[in-house]
Amino acid sequence: MAKHIINKSPVLIVGANGTIGHSLVTAFKTAEKTVCLTTHHRGLVNGHRLFLDLSEDISTWSLPSAQISTAILCAAVTSQEKCRLEPEYSRRVNVVGTIALAKRLVDSGVFVIFFSTNLVFDGKKPFTKANDPVNPQNNYGRQKAEAEAELLKLGNKVSVVRFSKVFSPDMPLSQGWIRDLKAGKEIHPFSDMVMSPIPLAFAVDVLLKVVGKRISGITQVSAEKDISYAEAAMRIARRLGLNEELIKPISYHKSGIEFAPLHTTLDVSRLQSELGMILPDVYETVTECSNIRLN
Ligand SMILES: NC(=O)c1ccc[n+]([C@@H]2O[C@H](COP(=O)([O-])OP(=O)(O)OC[C@H]3O[C@@H](n4cnc5c(N)ncnc54)[C@H](OP(=O)(O)O)[C@@H]3O)[C@@H](O)[C@H]2O)c1
């Protein structure tokens, strides 16, 4: 990993406690890169971790170090349900605060990396191209689409990385499936909701390359195909030798979820040609969690 990081000036990681933020911190520390971190939990603030709440006015917030060359914006309200139920709060964080922070950073000469999602598209077709028109179908997607459009106006100091599903071995969803199957309980994964998952370690590797090469514009990251959540659960059960008959797929419509795209794959030609990334096997990605030991 360290080989992608040439510049040694500190990197600012905004939202360092989240899934991707936390893994990035570990990766940068392994590469002996100095990191400045932010959190919106006052109780976690210390000498290395500054307070920053994107739902608040950030006009008095100042950069922790003039040497910072890159900022990675991992902070967001990431729950689609929360974005639906709390549209004003989530928009303050995902759009207003994010844009305000990015502008301040770019004005200070900092290269800004912003994470977006396949949900800026409607998912009616697979392998959506980076410059296809956006057509978000829920608040989370709309907020991300609005933020990325404003950020891209800031020029070549901004990189937008659109992820499909980042799959980490200790995800509550897959670990819950495993726990229930081991306990002989039925599970009900969605048969009509799909994902094109990429491993968390792969996502981190992509980001290290984006930082190292200072790639601006839009980079898309997804797997080579979609699989349903039910299929993922089946693969995990099979890998672990668990009873597949306990898997009773249901429709996501029964769960109250407002929207799920038919396709989540993105066109990843830039990822392959400019960053030289080779997509991991989608089944390996979802069964990686079987290597985790449950307590
Ligand atoms: N994971 C995926 O599959 C996926 C897919 C597509 C896009 N993305 C995008 O990638 C980014 C990171 O995702 P993730 O999965 O790592 O998310 P996550 O685990 O939910 O972490 C998001 C982090 O945002 C920070 N945050 C939340 N509210 C905040 C506020 N009001 N002010 C400041 N910080 C706030 C929190 O960090 P602190 O606790 O440190 O404050 C939180 O841990 C997000 O922008 C997400 O939309 C993720």
Give the tags.
295 residues, alpha/beta, Rossmann fold, 9 helices, 34% helix, 15% strand, binds NADP nicotinamide-adenine-dinucleotide phosphate
Structure description:
Strand 5 (111-117), helix 4 and strand 6 (158-163) form a beta-alpha-beta unit. The protein has helices spanning 19-30, 80-85, 87-107, 139-152, 172-182, 200-213, 229-240, 269-273, 282-287; strands spanning 11-14, 35-39, 49-51, 70-73, 111-117, 158-163, 165-167, 194-195, 197-199, 217-221, 227-228. Helix 1 (19-30) crosses helix 6 (200-213) and helix 3 (87-107) packs parallel to helix 4. 34% of the residues lie in helices and 15% in strands. By secondary structure, it is an alpha/beta fold. It contains nine helices and eleven strands. The mean pLDDT is 93. The protein has one domain (2-168, 197-222, 265-280): NAD(P)-binding Rossmann-like Domain (Rossmann fold), CATH 3.40.50. Bound molecules: NADP nicotinamide-adenine-dinucleotide phosphate. Residues 15-21, 39-41, 52-55, 74-78, 93, 115, 117, 163, 165-166 line the site of NADP nicotinamide-adenine-dinucleotide phosphate.
Brief write-up:
Helix content is 34%, strand content 15%.
Put simply, the count of helices is 9
Distance from first to last alpha carbon: 30 Å
Helicity, as a percent range = 25-40%
* Mean pLDDT metric: 93
Q: Which segments are poorly predicted (pLDDT under 50) over 5 or more consecutive residues?
A: none
Give me the side-by-side strand order of the main sheet. 3-2-1-4-5-6-10
CATH overall fold name: Rossmann fold
Instruction: Just name the CATH architecture.
Output: 3-Layer(aba) Sandwich
Number of domains: 1
Could you say which overall geometry the principal axes of the C-alpha atoms support? globular
The CATH superfamily bears the name NAD(P)-binding Rossmann-like Domain
The topology string of helices and strands comes to EHEEEHHEHEEHEEHEEHHH
Rounded radius of gyration (Å)? 19 Å
How many distinct beta strands?
A: 11
- Main β-sheet description: 7 strands, parallel
